[in-house]
Design goal:
Two copies of one chain form a homodimer. The first copy, chain A, is of the alpha+beta class and 200 residues long. The first copy, chain A, has one domain: Electron Transport, Fmn-binding Protein, Chain A (Pnp Oxidase, Chain A, Roll). Chain A is 34% helix and 36% strand. In chain A, strands 1, 2, 3, 4, 5, 6, 7 and 8 form an eight-stranded antiparallel β-sheet that branches.
Chain lengths: 200, 200
């Protein structure tokens, strides 16, 4: 990846992991990959997801615990004519934040840790609460029938693409076009462009 | 996957592939998976993406052409108390459309086919046009330095989860809560819940 797009700041990476609702889990089944989306939660340096005990992903993980986990927040599509005045298609792109975690998956067996992870997942996806805490004994049976998996990262790469490689002139043309187009993600995209340009 | 969530209609599947801007490509590098997001376009039964010739994904594909490609459109998070009156966390979920394509990747060498794929990608992501068509000779050099990859699917699985498995009572409670919450994706989610309930 181009150095200019690379994000190394842990707080920035964690902020994305704590905001995005799902990631795509990739596994290897012998020489064949298998990709499936899962809701997830971060606790410290680790990432957790859950599922039914008999899921295909649980069966594959039992044979090969290596995982690659991809988390994306996609922003505005940048039309080619936003930055080019020559009418070429090549500058067309999409801005995004993306995190790739390579690591090893470990099935969590301890009841209290499973409850802690599921509680954290609830707090992420349903921050307003309104449910009996997962530590309650009412969940004994549910906890037993739910698999909770921990991803221990061996590497985390983050790529945030917001035009950091562009000349000032092209950069400003994109901002002007996004302001004019004013579609749902466009304002947020301008904000990110400015934030990551300033960070250089 | 539960039968009630499974989508078999080709037009429904194609409509999602033609709307969602990116998918997550999973490859196998020996016994290690590798996941990376890519913009893509469907042409007929095939899916295409492009990238720099020297990308990590191109190097891995040269060694092992097996791919798993995951496309997701995520909808509303469904709070646990939307459907449960017992205060349990378990019913918390997120509704979504997801497609998983397993297949084999093939690098496209023919100049005209590469141009055709990139033109289709432009039409998908920049439907208003405003660029010189990819068939133009101005793109000779750009076409040579761009890798275009075709995914030939061996299986396509589609799972659309919109509460099709719920009792009428729980289903209606969720609709009422979504109407009340009225966050960005909530109305679209209600629309999908009704569409896929009726399709049963």
């Amino acid at each position: 990846m181009k150095k200019v797009f690379e994000i190394k700041d842990k707080r920035t990476i964690n902020a994305l992991l704590d905001t995005v609702e799902y990631g795509t889990l990739a596994l290897s089944n012998q020489d064949k990959p298998y990709a499936v989306p899962v809701n997830f939660v971060r606790l410290g340096e680790l990432v957790y997801f859950h599922g039914a005990l008999s899921n295909k992903k649980m069966k594959l993980l039992a044979k090969n615990p290596n995982v690659s986990f991809s988390v994306v927040n996609s922003y505005a599509v940048i039309d080619s004519f936003f930055s080019s005045t020559e009418g070429l298609a090549c500058p067309a792109t999409q801005f995004f934040k993306s995190i790739s975690i390579d690591g090893v998956a470990k099935v969590i067996e301890a009841r209290d840790m499973k409850a802690k992870v599921l509680e954290a997942l609830m707090q992420k996806l349903q921050p307003k609460g309104g449910y009996t805490p997962l530590s309650d004994s009412v969940y004994e049976k549910a906890l037993k029938s739910t698999a909770v998996v921990e991803i221990v990262p061996s590497s985390i790469r983050a790529k945030y693409k917001f035009g950091q490689n562009l000349t000032q002139e092209r950069f400003e043309r994109i901002v002007t076009h996004l302001e004019e187009r004013n579609e749902p993600k466009d304002n947020e995209t301008i904000e990110m462009m400015k934030a990551y340009k300033d960070a250089l």
